[in-house]
Write a structure and sequence with these properties.
The protein starts with 6 loop residues before the first helix and ends in a 7-residue tail after the last helix. It has helices at residues 7-10, 13-33, 48-68, 71-76, 78-95, 115-131, 141-159, 164-169, 173-179, 184-202, 205-224, 227-251, 258-280, 283-308, 312-321, 333-344, 356-359, 371-404, 408-432, 450-468, and strands spanning 97-99, 102-108, 111-113. The chain is globular, with a radius of gyration of 26 Å. It has 20 helices and three strands. The chain has a three-stranded antiparallel sheet with strand order 1-2-3, with helices on one face. The chain has two domains: 7-193 and 315-472, no CATH class; 203-310. With 475 residues, the protein is mainly alpha-helical.
């Protein structure tokens, strides 16, 4: 049941002011990033800052439209919007224009639209719609499988472009799931897989297997809480390893590869553990053994994915980040120049339009993916702190408003908005300062481009419209 209230009186003006301040700051920094003495006017439509003014104007129109729509329409048409988004992602694979190795753009005259950005809005609506439905129960595995499928389908289509950076953003929905009752142990398992992925890319297979076995032994002790059984498992594994290695190398004259003998010993102990599980009905130990072998198989798949799914430039960027390669004049150039720009800004920065790295175009893509280095160079630590502080305030405000919602749909959607924005900010800033690989993620409200600005505007203002009408929902 609902009752009518004055939307414009109840809309969260604090968040709107934050949005306008950040959009204005983004526009000014785009002006600084691509400033030309021949085109000094910020309103010059021949330059990116002039075009960004048009995108900002269109974004404000989208914001007003979003605030004028009946809140029930967002829930009612959520699946329809999601379906349209999937169709656009399929069409762009056939009809899209290829830019920087990714077929991710529709080109209409001088206008380019990236359906991937709008797919985030559509997926957020669809996830909120499903998890707020009567059939979705947090204690049922089926609920999370279906919710996962809703996320995976657009992510797979985006990966085919390929745009791995945007695929990573979709992982943010796992944090939204956690708020709605997703088992924490599964989320922890996901972080362990991420940890194993990094280890698999950096360390040798033997080292990776040792790490997996250490984690498995710790899990075994937590489940059983019996030191004698843990000691038996460790001693049995060691004996199996040394015996198999000695027989294979000294008697059968096989090559001395410690990894294969440790893998064989792990298999032997796994068989022994399964026999004990059957006899003593130790269900939790079964899951420890099962997940151990799944983890081993997963680390095998990392190299295959790395070699066959990532583009060569993406592989090189990851290898550089992990310290396995060095190419300061090639793949490492963007990040190196970005770090120089940010570092040279000092505490207060060099001043507006005074950035040398910016002025002489040392940093490629500075108005888009690397816009944050313009902030760091010209406004220094203070300016960077203010920008990141604004994002923190915005995210905390969205989370606070989400908890105030009376509607499950609005709450889930709000958390989706916050997690998507958080992922974008974390990845973008992380890659500009060299903590993360360069994967082409725009900084919300700051990076040049209509698609990104429009999508984030829709994402935010749909939530503000839902929040403005939260009192319409009677408890």
């Amino acid at each position: 049941m609902q009752r009518n209230v004055n939307v414009w009186a109840r809309v969260d003006w604090f968040t709107i002011i934050l949005y306008l301040v950040m959009v204005l700051m983004g526009w000014v920094n785009i002006y600084a990033a691509v400033y030309s003495e021949e085109h000094r006017s910020i309103f010059d439509w021949n330059m990116r800052y002039g075009k960004q003014m048009l995108w900002i104007g269109a974004a404000i129109v989208l914001a007003l439209i979003s605030l004028s729509i009946d809140t029930r329409a967002f829930s009612f048409f959520a699946y329809f919007i999601y379906a349209l988004s999937l169709i656009s992602l399929m069409l762009v694979l056939v009809l899209g224009k290829e830019v920087n190795g990714a077929r991710a753009w529709f080109e209409i005259g001088q206008l380019r639209l990236q359906p991937t950005e709008f797919a985030k809005v559509a997926t957020c609506l669809a996830v909120a719609k499903y998890l707020s439905s009567y059939n979705a129960r947090s204690d049922k595995l089926k609920t999370w499988i279906i919710a996962g499928i809703i996320i995976v389908i657009p992510a797979v289509l985006i990966a085919l472009q390929p745009d791995i950076g945007s695929v990573v953003v979709f992982a943010a929905f796992s944090l939204t799931f956690y708020r709605e009752g997703f088992p924490g142990i599964i989320l922890l398992f996901g972080f362990l897989l991420l940890f194993l992925s990094l280890i698999a890319l950096v360390a040798s297979p033997f080292t990776v297997l040792i790490v997996i076995l250490i984690i498995a032994l710790i899990a075994f002790f937590i489940v059983r809480q019996r030191i004698p059984e843990l000691l038996v498992a460790i001693v049995g594994l060691a004996i199996s390893y040394f015996l198999s290695r000695m027989i294979a190398v000294r008697i059968l004259h096989f090559p001395d590869n410690p990894y294969y003998y440790l893998l064989f010993a792990t298999g032997m102990m796994g068989v022994i553990a399964l026999v004990s599980i059957v006899r003593k009905k130790m269900r939790y130990v079964f899951w420890v053994v099962f997940l151990t072998f799944m983890a081993i198989g997963f680390t095998y798949s990392i190299d295959y994915f790395f070699d066959n799914f990532l583009q060569p430039h993406q592989q090189q960027r990851i290898n550089i980040l992990l310290g396995k390669e060095s190419d300061p004049k090639g793949a490492e150039y963007n990040v190196a120049q970005s770090k120089i720009a940010i570092g040279s800004g000092g505490f207060f920065g060099k001043g507006f339009l005074q950035g040398t790295q910016t002025k002489f175009n040392f940093v490629p893509e500075q108005s888009t993916d690397f816009i944050f280095c313009t902030v760091g160079e010209e406004w220094g630590f203070v300016g960077s702190f203010i920008v990141l502080g604004l994002f923190v305030i915005l995210l905390l405000r969205i989370l606070h408003l989400s908890e105030l919602q009376r509607s499950a749909f609005s709450r889930i959607y709000g958390y989706g908005v916050a997690t998507i924005m958080f992922m974008h900010v974390a990845i973008n800033v992380g890659m500009t300062i060299g903590l993360l690989p360069v994967i082409g993620i725009p900084l919300p409200f700051f990076s040049y481009g209509g698609s990104s600005l429009w999508a984030f505007t829709l994402l935010l203002f749909i939530f503000l419209r839902l929040d403005a009408s939260r009192l319409e929902v009677l408890r």
